[in-house]
Design brief:
Blueprint: H1 7-21, E1 27-31, H2 38-46, E2 53-57, H3 60-72, E3 78-81, E4 86-87, E5 92-96, E6 112-116, H4 127-134, E7 139-144, E8 148-153, E9 156-161, E10 170-176, H5 179-184, E11 191-195, H6 215-225, H7 227-239, E12 245-249, H8 252-261, E13 266-269, H9 274-286, E14 291-295, E15 309-313, H10 319-327, E16 339-343, H11 347-351, E17 357-361, E18 367-371, E19 374-375
Parallel strand pairs: 1-7, 1-10, 2-5, 2-6, 3-5, 6-7, 11-16, 12-14, 12-15, 13-14, 15-16
Antiparallel strand pairs: 3-4, 8-9, 17-18, 18-19
Helix pairs in contact: 1-2, 2-3, 7-8
Length: 385
C-alpha cells in the first residue's frame, strides 16, 4: 500500500534524511504534534537511510504502529522486543528500549538511531543514555510532540526545552510544525473547550519537587468538595450528548466511586491486567463501552480517532500530561465533527488551548514553548494561571 506524505511530513522526512547524511556529530530532534503521523515520517526516513538503522520506542504498542506503517510500504524490517516475543536484527530494526538495554553489543555497527517519544530520554542517566554512550559512532534523531523535560534547580521546578538541558543529548532542532498548522489544515479534529471552576488549585499542596500535587492534599480536598459526585454529574450529562467519553481521574478510589455511579462505565488503571486491559479497550473502541474512566494510563500509545469527549476530572502541573490527555481527542475520524474537552481542574486556564501552543525562539536563538504570549518552559512552575 502506498501513502503519500503530507507537505509537513515530507519536510520532516527530508530534514531527518539530510541530518543523517550530514557530517554533523550533534544529535537532533524533530517536533511533530500528536496525531501528525510520526509513523509515516519514521517509515519514509528509515527506508532512505544509508547504513543500519535502529528505531526505538518506549512501548510495544507504539512499536507495532511504527513497524506496521514501515512494512505497509513493502520494505523489510525486524523487531527486537521481548514483549512481542521477537528478537531479530536487520538493516532496519524496531526495538523497545527495555529489550535491548543489556544488548548494546548487538548494535555496534548501527549508524543511525531514531527515538520516538524522545522527551523520555534522560540526559543524565537511564537506558537511553547508556545506549547512546555505548554506540558512540551513531547519530541520534528524536521525535516528539512535547520537546521538554522536568528539571529541578536553584530556581525551582521547571520544564526545560530538550536542547537547553544540562547535560544535554539533543543539540539542534531539525524541524518543527506548529499545532495551529495541522488544525487549520483539517489534519486534526476541531476541539471545543469547556472549563468549570470545580477544583481550586490554591487548596492543593505541591510535592517536594514542586512538580505536581501531593496525594494527601488531593484526598483531603476531594473529600471536602465530594469530587467523585461532581465527576459523576458531569459524566452523566456528557454521555447524554456525546457517543463516548474518556475520563481522567487522579486517584483510584475516586475513580472507583465514579464508575459505580455512571451506568456502563468501566475502570482501567496501571494495575489492570494486560488481557483485561485489551478487552476493555476493544470494547470502548467498538462502542460497547460508552464511558472509560482511567487513572495514570491512556496518555500515550492509545489511539481512538472516533473519541468525541474527554473529561479532565483532575488538576496537573505537567504540561506534557495535559497535552497528552487532550491529544487523545485530536485525531479525525469519519463522522466526527469535533471533540469536547471538559476541564474541572483549571488546566485550560493554566496552559491554554493546545491549538495555540507554539515552539518559539528567543533573540539568542534559544528554543522555548509558549501559548498566547505566556512562556511555559524554562520558567519556574506556578500552580495558578
Amino acid at each position: 500500500m502506498s501513502f503519500t506524505p503530507r507537505p509537513y511530513q515530507t519536510a520532516a522526512i527530508d530534514s531527518i534524511i539530510d541530518f543523517f547524511k550530514s557530517t554533523s556529530r550533534h544529535h537532533g530532534i524533530c517536533i511533530l504534534p500528536t496525531g501528525s503521523g510520526k509513523s509515516v515520517v519514521i517509515a519514509n526516513a528509515a527506508m532512505n537511510m544509508d547504513g543500519n538503522t535502529l528505531i526505538l520506542q518506549p512501548s510495544k504498542e507504539i512499536l507495532e504502529q511504527n513497524f506496521a506503517k514501515f512494512r505497509s510500504y513493502g520494505y523489510r524490517a525486524s523487531i527486537y522486543s521481548a514483549s512481542l516475543n521477537q528478537k531479530r536484527i536487520d538493516k532496519v530494526t524496531f526495538a523497545t528500549i527495555g529489550s535491548i538495554a543489556r544488548k548494546h553489543h548487538l548494535f555496534q555497527d548501527f549508524k543511525n538511531i531514531i527515538i520516538d517519544e524522545c522527551h523520555l530520554v534522560n540526559s543524565k542517566e537511564g537506558m537511553y543514555n547508556d545506549l547512546i554512550k555505548a554506540i558512540a559512532g551513531a547519530k541520534v534523531c528524536g521525535l516528539t510532540a512535547t520537546p521538554y523535560r522536568l528539571t529541578n534547580s536553584l530556581e525551582g521546578a521547571m520544564l526545560k526545552f530538550l536542547t537547553r538541558t544540562r547535560p544535554r543529548i539533543f543539540s539542534q532542532v531539525l524541524y518543527t510544525v506548529q499545532n495551529s498548522v495541522l488544525f487549520e489544515s483539517g489534519f486534526l479534529s476541531p476541539l471545543k473547550y469547556y472549563h468549570q471552576d470545580i477544583i481550586d488549585r490554591s487548596k492543593l499542596a505541591l510535592n517536594s519537587t514542586g512538580t505536581d500535587f501531593t496525594e494527601d492534599s488531593l484526598k483531603r480536598y476531594y473529600s471536602n468538595i465530594n469530587m467523585p459526585a461532581q465527576t459523576v454529574a458531569f459524566a452523566n450529562r456528557l454521555l447524554a450528548k456525546r457517543k463516548n467519553l474518556l475520563v481522567f481521574c487522579s486517584l483510584i478510589e475516586e475513580a472507583e466511586k465514579v464508575v459505580a455511579n455512571v451506568p456502563g462505565a468501566v475502570l482501567i488503571t496501571g494495575k489492570t491486567e494486560k488481557k483485561e486491559r485489551e478487552r476493555i479497550l476493544d470494547g470502548f473502541k467498538s462502542g460497547k463501552i460508552k464511558c472509560l474512566v482511567n487513572v495514570g494510563v491512556l496518555t500515550t500509545g492509545f489511539d481512538y480517532p472516533a473519541l468525541e469527549c474527554i473529561l479532565l476530572a483532575r488538576s496537573t502541573m505537567s504540561l506534557s500530561l495535559y497535552y497528552q490527555m487532550v491529544g487523545r481527542g485530536m485525531r479525525t475520524a469519519p463522522g466526527k465533527e469535533d471533540c469536547w474537552i471538559v476541564d474541572l481542574g483549571g488546566n485550560i486556564k493554566l496552559f491554554g488551548k493546545v491549538e495555540t501552543i507554539t515552539v518559539e525562539t528567543g533573540p539568542t536563538g534559544l528554543y522555548y514553548i509558549s501559548n498566547n504570549g505566556k512562556q511555559l518552559t524554562n520558567v519556574p512552575f506556578t500552580k495558578a494561571a
